[in-house]
Amino acid sequence: MSVDPDLLAPFLPPGEKVTARQTTPNGGTQRCNVSVDGELALVTGRLWWEKTGSLVDVAAVHAQVNKGDVITGDEFLYSGTGAVGKVEGCTDSAHPDQALFTVLQVFASGRESSPTMKRLVTEYTGQVQKGSDCT
């Protein structure tokens, strides 16, 4: 999934080497762990969650999303260090009673920006919606 590097940069600490590693912790979750010089800085993810679940439900089980002031809209919930988005119009036969959500979590110390996080979750969720997970 590609997003504007200018939206990622504020959440990454200074360093020499940026690495990204894809993980699939369970059948309904995909994550990308972004590290700088071997230290985890940012986690992006998409996961299938019960259709009746809300942004707040998803945020409650993800570290970093509820730090600071949380702003909730119809499609996004975000703070300076994390966000949750709901991807509209996605279905998957392996997850028939679930909706697709995106999650962003910033683990780099001192790196937070609510306005940038709002733009990042909006772009990332839009890219997921255009991707192969949505049919």
Description of the molecule:
The chain is an alpha+beta fold and 135 residues long. It has one domain (21-130). The protein contains three helices and seven strands, in the order αβββαββββα. The protein has helices at 5-8, 55-60, 114-130, and strands spanning 18-26, 29-36, 39-50, 71-72, 76-78, 82-87, 98-106. A seven-stranded antiparallel sheet has the order 1-2-3-7-6-5-4. A hairpin with a 2-residue loop joins strand 2 (29-36) and strand 3 (39-50).
Task: Give a topology summary.
Blueprint: H1 5-8, E1 18-26, E2 29-36, E3 39-50, H2 55-60, E4 71-72, E5 76-78, E6 82-87, E7 98-106, H3 114-130
Antiparallel strand pairs: 1-2, 2-3, 3-7, 4-5, 5-6, 6-7
Which descriptors would you attach to this protein?
7-stranded antiparallel beta sheet, alpha+beta, globular, 135 residues
Count of helical stretches: 3
Shape: globular
The arrangement of helices and strands along the chain is: HEEEHEEEEH
How many domains? The number is 1
Helix content range? 10-25%
Number of E-type strands: 7
The spatial strand order of the largest sheet comes to 1-2-3-7-6-5-4
β-strand percent reads: 35-45%
Distance between the termini: 16 Å
The major beta sheet can be summarized as: 7 strands, antiparallel
Mean pLDDT: 88
Unreliable spans are: none
User: What Rg is obtained from the alpha carbons, in whole angstroms?
Assistant: 14 Å
| Class from secondary-structure proportions | alpha+beta
